[in-house]
Design brief:
The complex is a heterodimer of chains A (about 140) and B (about 230).
Chain A: E1 10-15, H1 18-30, E2 37-41, H2 52-62, E3 68-72, H3 76-88, E4 95-98, H4 103-114, H5 119-128
Parallel strand pairs in A: 1-2, 1-3, 3-4
Chain B: E1 16-17, H1 18-46, H2 51-69, H3 76-90, H4 95-110, E2 115-116, H5 118-136, H6 145-159, H7 164-181, H8 205-221
Antiparallel strand pairs in B: 1-2
Helix pairs in contact in B: 1-2, 1-8, 2-3, 3-4, 4-5, 5-6, 6-7, 6-8, 7-8
The chains are: A alpha/beta (about 140), B mainly alpha (about 230).
The complex binds adenosine-5'-triphosphate and magnesium ion.
Adenosine-5'-triphosphate sits at the interface of chains B and A.
Chain lengths: ~140, ~230
Amino acid sequence: MSAPPRPAVGLVLVSHSPLVAAGTAELAGQMAPGVRIVAAGGLADGRLGTDAVRVVAAVEAADGGAGVVVLADLGSAVLAARTALELLGERAARVRLSGGPFVEGAVVAAVEASLGRDVDRVLAAAEAAAGLDKHVR
Amino acid sequence: MTETPAGAVFGAAPTVGVPELADWLRRFAALVAAAKDELTALDAAIGDADHGVNLDRGLQAVVARLPELGAPGATPASLLKGVALTLISTVGGASGPLYGTFFLRLAGSLGDAPAVGPGELAAGLRAGLDGMAERGRTQLDDKTMVDALAPAIAALAAGLPAAWDEVLARSVAAGAAGRDRVTPLVARKGRASYLGERSAGHQDPGATSAVLLLEALRDALAPAGAPG
Ligand SMILES: Nc1ncnc2c1ncn2[C@@H]1O[C@H](COP(=O)(O)OP(=O)(O)OP(=O)(O)O)[C@@H](O)[C@H]1O
Ligand SMILES: [Mg+2]
C-alpha cells in the first residue's frame, strides 16, 4: 500500500473585486488540479471591498495540512490579509503572504503547489513571478 | 475622610466601563454619519471617494450590534473586540483593518477588567495606535489617521493626572492640530500616495475621521456639564 499523497499547499486570493478573485482562481486552477484555491473577493454582500474575516474563513478552507499562500491585489487587500493573520493567531504559523503580482503569482504558485512543493517554496515562486519573462520585446 | 465615588466630582476622572465605551462608539457613529459627505468629498480629492461611506457603513453595523456586545457579562475587552471584528468585516476599505486593529489592540490591553481608569485607558489607546501603525507600516508624516491620533494620545498620557475634562479637550486639540499639520504634505500611504505631489494641500480623510473619534471620546467621558 502506498502512503497517502502529501496534501498540496492551498492558495487564497484576496481582491476588492469578487470577479477578479474568482476569475484568477479559475485561471490558476486550470493548471493545478487538486490544489485548493479559494477566492476571498469583495464584501459579504457582494460589494467591492476587502474583509479580513472572509480571508480567515478562506484560509481555513484552503488549508489541507500543508499550509497556505495568500495573494492580495492592492491597498487594503494587503491590510486585510495581514489582519487575517493576526486573527488566525497560532493557526497562521503555516500561512504566508505574497508580495508578488496577483494574477501571475497565483498561476505560478498553483503550479508549484500542484507539484507538492512546501509552503515556503510556493511563496518564493509567487514572489518571483514579478520577474516572469512575458517575451514582450 | 469620606470616599468620593470616582466621576462624581466635576472634572474628576470617571471609570470607563462597558456603558461609557458603548457611548463613545455611538457618538463616533453619529459624528461620522453627520460628516459622511464631507469625509467622502475629502476622499474624492485624494482617494476613491468612499471613506465616509465605508466608515459610516461599518459604524452603523457596530451600533446595531452594541446591545448584544454590551449585554450583561460583557467586559470592555469583549465589547471592543466585537467592535473590531465588525469594523474589519463591514468597512471594506483601508480604514476597516486600521480602526479594527486599533480596537483589537485596545481590547487586548484591557484584560478582563470590568472597568478601567484614565491611566489604563490612555495606555490602551497607545497600544491601539501602535497596532494601527504596525498594521499599516505607518510612520508619522505619512499623512494618515496616525498623524492625528499620535499627538492626541500623547497629550492624553502627558496630561494626566490633571482634570480629566481638560485633558480630553487638549487631546482633541492636539489631534486636530496633527490633522492640519500634515495637510501640506505629500501622502506616503494608501490610495492618496498614488497621487504623489498632487496629494499635497489636501486634508487627509482618515486624519479627519480620527479627530471625530477623539471628539466622541471627549464627549462620552467628560463629566456632564464640562466644556466640550
Ligand atoms: N497604511 C496606512 N496607514 C495608516 N493609515 C492609512 C494607511 N492607508 C490608508 N490610511 C488611511 O485611510 C484613509 C482612507 O480610508 P478608506 O477607508 O477610504 O480606504 P481606501 O484607501 O479607500 O482603501 P482601499 O485600499 O480599499 O481602496 C486615508 O485617508 C488614510 O488616513
Ligand atoms: Mg477610500
